[in-house]
TrEMBL record:
Protein name: ABC transport system ATP-binding protein/lipoprotein-releasing system ATP-binding protein
Classification via Pfam families: ABC_tran
Top-level lineage group: Bacteria
Alphabetical keyword list: ATP-binding, Nucleotide-binding, Transport
Organism of provenance: Salisediminibacterium halotolerans
Domain ABC transporter: residue ranges: 4-231
Keyword DNA repair: no
MF annotations from Gene Ontology: ATP binding; ATP hydrolysis activity; transmembrane transporter activity
Matches recorded under Gene3D superfamilies: P-loop containing nucleotide triphosphate hydrolases
Amino acid sequence: MSVIELTNVSKSYPDGDALQTVADNIDLTIDYGEFIGICGPSGSGKSTMLKLMNGLVTPDTGSVQVLGETPAAINGFDKWRIKKVGFVFQHHFLLPELNGLDNVLFMAQIAGWKRKWVRERAKEIFAYLGAERAAKRMPEQMSGGERQRVAVARALINDPPILLADEPTASLDRNRAEDLFSLYAKLSAEHNKTVVMATHDDRFVDRFSRAYTIDRGVLTEKEPLPAARQL
Ligand SMILES: Nc1ncnc2c1ncn2[C@@H]1O[C@H](COP(=O)(O)OP(=O)(O)OP(=O)(O)O)[C@@H](O)[C@H]1O
Ligand SMILES: [Mg+2]
């Protein structure tokens, strides 16, 4: 069984009197531990692709299977989603009234975990992400990189097999973007997470196990660059 399977998926949105196609007959199969990049310019449909993968958007035609199930058809879909698919939003969406740790614990509570046990797990995740300071800070006191790490911690707290990250490096400087990208690569390589990342940062393309471009709804696999020539 593959982790994510899109078969003949199409999706359009109304655009004035016309329809804008953001997914045009897309076929895509993703397995455990893969690190997939979805690249493309603004408005090309990257976020929509990720939302199709966790059931936040339903396709007009075609089928989306996640861990062998159709998200929209699952009883208790919301709980299923936060346990199976960690999502790091483009604009992080941390709750402004809660510090970093409580933002993460909140997600675990929704999933039904006991607070005491999960507190320890949250602390371990903050340490793993190198974000201990952010645990005690309110979102407005965090740097952009810290907010992104807290958003990753929140996505990881329920130990989902799938992580979807929507342009997680977009607001970071070069070094912080590199650190955060490496973190996702590590989660996929060492923890067998299936990671799908939307990005318009071309620097990272060769570091995905597979990278795709989306343009006018058409998904095309990027050719890996030829290996550096030996001199
Ligand atoms: N719920 C919606 N209703 C109508 N149109 C939408 C909706 N969601 C997305 N769109 C449109 O679909 C297109 C693709 O949007 P999407 O957010 O997937 O692009 P994106 O590649 O993630 O862009 P960006 O790089 O700016 O985040 C855009 O033109 C957007 O306006
Ligand atoms: Mg987007």
